[in-house]
Amino acid sequence: MSEATPILHMLDPRKHVSPFDVNMAADAGYKVIVPYTNVEVADVTPLIQDAIFSRPPNYGVRTGFFMGGKDALMALDMIDAAKKAMVPPFECSVFADPAGSFTTAAAMVACVERQLKQKFNRDWKGVKVAVFGATGVVGFASSIIAALEGANVQLVAHRGVDRVIKNAAISKERFGVDLEAVNGETADQKRDIIANAEVIFAAAAAGVQVVSAEHKALAKNLIAIADVNAVPPAGVEGLDLFMDGAPLPGCNAVGVGALAIGDIKYKTESGLFKQMLSSDKPLALDFRHAYAMAKQLTGIA
Ligand SMILES: NC(=O)c1ccc[n+]([C@@H]2O[C@H](COP(=O)([O-])OP(=O)(O)OC[C@H]3O[C@@H](n4cnc5c(N)ncnc54)[C@H](OP(=O)(O)O)[C@@H]3O)[C@@H](O)[C@H]2O)c1
Description:
- This protein is elongated.
- Helix 1 packs across helix 9, helix 4 packs across helix 5 (137-148) and helix 4 (101-120) crosses helix 9 (258-278).
- The chain is built from ten helices and twelve strands.
- It has two domains: 7-96, Methylene-tetrahydromethanopterin dehydrogenase, N-terminal domain (Rossmann fold); 101-261, NAD(P)-binding Rossmann-like Domain (Rossmann fold, 3-Layer(aba) Sandwich), CATH 3.40.50.
- Helix content is 43%, strand content 17%.
- It starts with 6 loop residues before the first strand and ends with a helix.
- The protein is an alpha/beta fold and 301 residues long.
- A seven-stranded mixed sheet has the order 7-6-5-8-9-11-10, sandwiched between helices.
- The structure holds NADP nicotinamide-adenine-dinucleotide phosphate.
- Residues 99-101, 104, 132-139, 158-159, 203-206, 208, 210, 228-230, 258, 261-262, 265 line the site of NADP nicotinamide-adenine-dinucleotide phosphate.
């Protein structure tokens, strides 16, 4: 491993970088961490090239860039711009995890997958998944990861189906996955979606309950349900924060709670920072690598 000081440049389109991510990077081993705010995709090439030419090529693996923000597609565009900006052998590593969404989504999908495998002898192929909070970064990333694994994923709109139709079109174009945009605006539409789902991802905003006791009673096909919201009330009524595959009272499904997912999320993000630090070649990490790491951590890889 190179003896060069590990340096992380953290890029964010917003006015702050995330203190959570700064702490994670420091605890994983980065010694110098520099925040850049109000960053646009067009800024990525000059920033990368400014960094890579300042160190000899064998120091490149000790230079990292982190793409934050709150926009999954923008973070992926920043990764793409960074990869194109490399001038081999002058290169560095890059990692995107906007608002923690890639590692959180990866953790949620892997935690539920462990339950599917262990309790139902199933993988994601053909599983009907309904995603609440589908226009959010966590919902969006988890939809794509599950669909890439063969699940039949519904993006549920809670206001205006147009935005989930747009997300489905973007996902098809960019990742080749077929996601179904469904309208869950009315109480009847929402009941129908829940009654047909085998798996539910509750990924709505903090403190928003999307699945009630009444919904659970209707969910006759449901085998597993995950809730990433740690702020009361629970995103799924009665789903304990630490639940990790226990039966969820009021239905036939098992539940996976926000802190069970958070534990794997935290280890996934830390693991990816450590992977960048220990690699002998430059890496470019996104939600796919986060999912691979989360599968290892949950013991299903
Ligand atoms: N457990 C963990 O480790 C962990 C880590 C990170 C985040 N989280 C949690 O993950 C969740 C999603 O985070 P995010 O960053 O993806 O949030 P986000 O980008 O703000 O998205 C929130 C989503 O919730 C939807 N929503 C808002 N109000 C709703 C309502 N009344 N009914 C149904 N849907 C509603 C939003 O829809 P509109 O677009 O229509 O507003 C959007 O799709 C949050 O609860 C967050 O706290 C957990």
